[in-house]
């Protein structure tokens, strides 16, 4: 029987469970919870380290703080709800809560993509125009870029839940993931979803797609500048400043592309594949980003160790 967002018949969706592993879901939640705790501790440590270390008060590390905050928000918008499902059997999610979660996931992903582009531009200016770097990327400009990233994400992805609001839903209410995504919810509608399909694809291409192209362009220009250097040692030294950012970009875009491919071509795949890919998309960047920058950035590494040392020596 169809229902809309205002219907009292069945105003909720059912989160996907692990097929064949329902009895073991409480145990399966432990690795998920561990990854979430690691993401919270790691990104929180990065935020504290940058705040406490004056030498890190620079655009690149402010962008890193933005990434940490986004990853914390994205993981917190999804993982606690998944854990409630796995541990307490709460599979149903209301229509309003599902739309809100969907909006947060897509918007925060768009903001993260914009910040990654800004970090690529920062690397380009620092390497190709080092004398102008301090004048172009000031702290004020960095703050404006952050606000612009948030505004861009909201403006592009706010229409997604609004396009789903008037649609009736019928048949199966079971989602493909343990959280709400636009494509997933849209596929359950029993009405014409062409406007939603077209707008969703357009938004993805104009935000994540365009950002990916511009990031690649930035690194092509960086590579061109690096190859102009005569000594291999100088080339490696310059390009080593980009390794952490390249790894973070891959940690974001590879799961995103994988999840998109699964949605587009994986209708015949096992449900477990959809669930695992969704969890990877949410948690891999949040877990890996602080590890990557903690290892590659000596100042962050030393400051985090000093914070841990101070905490251990604090009186109890």
Automatic annotation (TrEMBL):
Gene Ontology biological process: cellular response to lipid
Major site of localization recorded for this protein: membrane
Presence of the UniProt keyword Cell membrane in the record: yes
Organism superkingdom: Eukaryota
Listed InterPro entries: GPCR_Rhodpsn, GPCR_Rhodpsn_7TM, Olfact_rcpt, OR51/52/56-like
Pfam families in alphabetical order: 7tm_4 (PF13853)
UniProt keywords, alphabetically: Cell membrane, G-protein coupled receptor, Membrane, Olfaction, Receptor, Sensory transduction, Transducer, Transmembrane, Transmembrane helix
Membrane topology reported for the UniProt record: Multi-pass membrane protein
Family classification: Belongs to the G-protein coupled receptor 1 family.
PANTHER family: OLFACTORY RECEPTOR 51E2 (PTHR26450:SF92), OLFACTORY RECEPTOR 56B1-RELATED (PTHR26450)
Official protein name in the record: Olfactory receptor
Organism: Chloebia gouldiae (Gouldian finch)
